[in-house]
Amino acid sequence: xxxxxxxxxxxxxxxxxxxxxxxxxxxxxxxxxxxxxxxxxxxxxxxxxxxxxxxxxxxxxxxxxxxxxxxxxxxxxxxxxxxxxxxxxxxxxxxxxxxxxxxxxxxxxxxxxxxxxxxxxxxxxxxxxxxxxxxxxxxxxxxxxxxxxxxxxxxxxxxxxxxxxxxxxxxxxxxxxxxxxxxxxxxxxxxxxxxxxxxxxxxxxxxxxxxxxxxxxxxxxxxxxxxxxxxxxxxxxxxxxxxxxxxxxxxxxxxxxxxxxxxxxxxxxxxxxxxxxxxxxxxxxxxxxxxxxxxxxxxxxxxxxxxxxxxxxxxxxxxxxxxxxxxxxxxxxxxxxxxxxxxxxxxxxxxxxxxxxxxxxxxxxxxxxxxxxxxxxxxxxxxxxxxxxxxxxxxxxxxxxxxxxxxxxxxxxxxxxxxxxxxxxxxxxxxxxxxxxxx
Length: 439
Ligand SMILES: [Zn+2]
Known about the structure:
By secondary structure, the protein is an alpha/beta fold. 30% of the residues lie in helices and 24% in strands. It has 3 domains: 15-128, Immunoglobulin-like (Sandwich); 157-380, Aminopeptidase; 391-432, LysM domain (Membrane-bound Lytic Murein Transglycosylase D, Chain A, Roll). A hairpin with an 8-residue loop joins strand 8 (105-111) and strand 9 (120-126). Mean pLDDT is 79; it is low at 1-17, 133-151 and 263-293. Zinc ion binds at residues 164-165, 171-172, 180, 234, 282-283.
């Protein structure tokens, strides 16, 4: 097999030997856990890559290629790249050396042209597999640590906010050229901000900046953060610029099971797929025929949440489809985390593009999403969550207004929820705290 593979790459090299390839630009995308180096190339370029130690560096040899522009300087906060240099060799070949701050695993692959870029050679730098899980020193268990806790600590429910696309992948392009990856990030940040103010909820951003995260990696991040709900935020595009409105998706039944199996297999060999995903299609559609039971439970929770969010979006303006949609989006395939995907609007519609760019509309979208998320979580909150525990035992000095303030509910809501005949409270009395409805 290996011999055969070698033979093929050799043939590719021979085939391309004649034409010189221009490297139009080099772009750097530092992310917290990886760094992506992208070469904009005139054509698929034959190349080889090898890693050298002491000091750590990566050498990329590009066959019959020349640089058309100066190589950028690595950002000081880049966790992998210390610098990049280049030199021509063998009359016409180009050697690029990535000087590293730490040992890294490197992977290279070619991407086909998309709406924004032409052919690209991508180099991904990641932490080496062996260094990924440093051994924890065995901790001494002391007597004090074994004491039972006086109180069970109630947890926040975690919402993983996934801003679609990023970095190399701009997503859909607006009529005026705005990029989906940018506007969805702005909406995601608004949502994060709103959730931070909510008692009992916690937000986790799947990506924090303008870099690409593989679709399976997005699910893995949500799982690592023990997310209770995964919300992927996107903006649609269609060739007909009149099409408009928002839609909410959950995973379709087709494609659930095989992905569950695949996901488990991925867990086993913990292969990292950053960048290993084809970006040729906007959203990766995979189909399958079987149905997995655990996915079914997750799916019904997803559908429930999606319905709540769609209801809120309807209050905000026109929805594209009146019902929750189902599709085989890869990013929705966590077998154990209810996941939904929101197409906030059509960025290809000039009027909706303008709205998507407005901070005010972004806030309204985020608020509508939060309201839907909250409604769903309040209905389904597990007993160990802060959200489910909404009872207050009256202590000395408590007043109705103090309690209303504390839980951010109105005094009237408290009166109604507890059928209070008057506002006088007594120590030891238990009040039911009604749900807080968004702000
Ligand atoms: Zn998208």
